[in-house]
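Form P-L/3: holo structure prediction, ligand flavin-adenine dinucleotide.
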Amino acid sequence: MSQQFDVVIIGAGAAGLMCAFQAGQRGLSVLLIDHARKLAEKIRISGGGRCNFTNIYARPEAFLCQNPHFVKSALARYTAADFIDLVTRHDIPFHEKKLGQLFCDRSAQDIIDMLIENCHQAGVTLRTGCAVTQVTPTNGLYEVVTESGHISATSLVIATGGLSIPKIGATGFGYDIARQFGLALVPQRAGLVPLTFTDEMKQRCAVLSGLSVDALVSAGKTEFEEGMLFTHRGLSGPSILQISSYWRESEQLTVNLAPEHRIGDSLKADKKQHPKQTIHTALSQVLPKRLAADILASAQMEGRLADCADKQLAALGDLINDWHISPSGTEGYRTAEVTLGGVDTDALDARTMQARSHEGLYFIGEVVDVTGHLGGYNFQWAWSSGYICAEALAAR
Ligand SMILES: Cc1cc2nc3c(=O)[nH]c(=O)nc-3n(C[C@H](O)[C@H](O)[C@H](O)COP(=O)(O)OP(=O)(O)OC[C@H]3O[C@@H](n4cnc5c(N)ncnc54)[C@H](O)[C@@H]3O)c2cc1C
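OUTPUT (holo model):
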């Protein structure tokens, strides 16, 4: 005997939970399944435990997708203001950290509790620790075989997310379902991820590990100015995580370690005014001392400004304002915040998230080829895509 629901949602993360309670509130019978025992683990670990749940400047330009127009409908119909309203109605205290990024004052658990409470109130049936072994379309219904029995539903929503952080339950299940139903996939790769090096940079980064500076990092015409952190394996921090989503293997990146200064010019001026000053002292006025020492060692420069030729100072300035680095790779899905690529948006209707070729089959959240910048955009995509999907489910 199989149980029957209007909707089965596979994946009880951000998008799945939002879609489930919105559909339940519209009178649909909803089963929300997750193979993990604990719900929404990614929300729990997000934003350093405080969940950067949206960004007040959420806009289509902050998303990577092969079709840059795809996100527009969802973002316009369920906005950051809508989610802020939900959070406010649940008396969850929050604050803006910077650049429109909203975080919980207390903990990410507030967001999880809010979503689960809404699911309970909307009559959603939650089944955790439940693996799905097979999905089959039969007579206009979707048959879902799980470890704990057969289920059939009029609509099936895939909300299983991407591949990042496999140890808390990420799988490629959503991509397998897309393949099974003949939907195209955009190749996946890790995004918002630290960059690694194998050359002498690895050694330099290890020596500087723990040091953070403000840097302007660019890949072609795309640039981000935020913090950059040296780690034992390479580079991290917001500016590096952001650019990692644009970086392609074997490409160079450009780093400006002192975006507010033209170092070559200012060192030449310093040389005129304070010729006896050491170059390390002069450089330490704009860069952390450890970093200044490392750059001077790599440029094989030392001593007083007076002893440095203007040409040398100009070349040193280029090393700081226009530093070219060649990452060897990324830390991969082990630490990546997101997965780039996924279900090709050409295969989906942007107003409903339904597969164009299969009535009743929907894909929402990170499993789709939509990836936000760092700063609350990825959760906003999960909320927006989950919401418009629920509206479409109710309209079927
Ligand atoms: C460390 C970290 C910090 C982050 N911080 C932020 C942040 O502060 N702000 C922000 O906007 N974004 C952040 N993100 C990104 C954000 O967490 C994701 O983009 C978002 O969770 C995607 O939502 P989703 O519902 O599509 O997928 P997920 O939240 O990943 O949910 C997918 C669910 O599907 C389940 N699942 C997977 N495979 C199966 C299967 N075979 N059967 C059944 N269930 C399955 C998983 O267990 C999971 O519960 C962060 C990500 C990480 C890794």
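COMMENT: The chain has a mean pLDDT of 97.
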